[in-house]
Amino acid sequence: MADDLKITVNEYMPLRDVVFHTLRQSILKGELQPGDRLLEIQLAKKLGVSRTPIREALRKLELEGLVLMIPRRGAEVAGITEKGLRDVLEVRRSLEELAIELAVQRMNDRDIDDLEKARVAFRESLSQNDEIRIAQADENFHDVIYRGTYNDKLIQMLNNLRDQMYRYRLEYIKDVGKRQVILVEHENILNAVRTRNPELGRRAMREHIDNQEITISRQIAQEQRQRPRGRRAEGRTGKREAE
Questions:
Q1: Mutual angle of helices 179-194 and 131-147, in 10-degree steps
Q2: Coil, strand or helix: which one is 148?
Q3: Domains of the chain, with CATH numbers?
Q4: Which residues share a beta bridge with 67?
């Protein structure tokens, strides 16, 4: 467990949400690693809170797929599995292809200007070399597309998937060599919107998400090869998901 785990108090946010966001960020940043046990007593002591907000935060993290509840063992940080990746990206691919198809047809000039600004903001975020900021900038680019569909139900479905997508988005961005690829993909998507070409938009979005899946799958396979043989079954192969 991370020794430097600290809570940032926010007077406008319930304590359980503060604890949730603190633990979530620690997991996403890699300060808490897959397999790390999350003991309520230890976490409560480190963060200076009671066990109740810890317990509530762990339940929310379990719903996001960031934490596993293991019988007779308790909570621990979940690894990224091939199945988890595939499940999320299959849904995301279908929804985002529909989103870009609608956005191409419905975005007005102001929406397109907002998408261009989001593209530039992503490009500028790359110079900061801050994975969290880059992931947020990528998320903002997609948010503009979602709003440009003018379909409230689709926007709601994509927003419900947001937290589950975030971990994979962050994993993809950790590959520094792929950041320029994402920039080019954003340009292709923007070009499809400007030229009102739904097929080009679907193709560009599909390529964008397919590249993410290929890259993260390669990272998972590499980590499995590097793990000691006895722990491979416990890592990112998905065995624990089935327990």
A1: 20
A2: coil
A3: 1-78 (1.10.10.10), 82-224 (1.20.120.530)
A4: 77
